[in-house]
Every structure is written in C-alpha cells, then in structure tokens.
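Researcher: Sequence recovery benchmark, item below. Answer with residues only.
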C-alpha cells in the first residue's frame, strides 16, 4: 500500500473526505518527523515507537578500491513495533 491507498482507507474508516484524511495524515507524518529529528521519541501505544538512534563510527571498505575507510557517526530514524502490532502481524 502506498500513501494514496492509506489516505483512501483512512477516509473510508473515519468517514471523512479524502482531502481531510490526506491533511491529517500529512500533519501526523510531519509531526512525527519533527519530533524524532529533535531527539524525542514518539510512542503510539499498541502500534510502536519512533525514535532517533545514533550509529557508532565504524570501519568500512570502498567497494571500488577495497581501501579501508572510516564511516562517521550518523543519526538515523528507527521504529520498534509495539506488542499489539507484533501480535496482529503474527496472526
């Protein structure tokens, strides 16, 4: 499912227009991205947690030359599924 399909499904389940559902979905996604970018967690009980994680500096190799190189510390978004979500997927 892509974003358009999700908007359609939300509009149908919430009994709102597609335009309203798209606005709410966009606002939700923007809010999650802003919060996680600032270093805070977003926890949706039963669904999961969005958070910022830091990857440590590590050694890698240049695929073209095979030369060793240092990959710097980076910040990445992460999602951990909640118990209810995991159980729903497991069947």
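Model:
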């Amino acid at each position: 499912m892509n974003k358009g399909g999700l908007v359609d499904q939300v509009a149908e389940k919430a009994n709102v227009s597609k335009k309203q559902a798209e606005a709410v979905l966009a606002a939700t996604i923007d809010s999650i991205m802003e919060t996680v970018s600032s270093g805070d967690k977003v926890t949706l009980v039963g669904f999961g947690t969005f958070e910022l994680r830091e990857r440590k500096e590590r050694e890698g190799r240049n695929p073209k030359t095979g030369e060793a190189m240092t990959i710097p510390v980076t910040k990445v978004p992460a999602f951990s599924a909640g118990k209810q979500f995991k159980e729903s997927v497991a069947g």
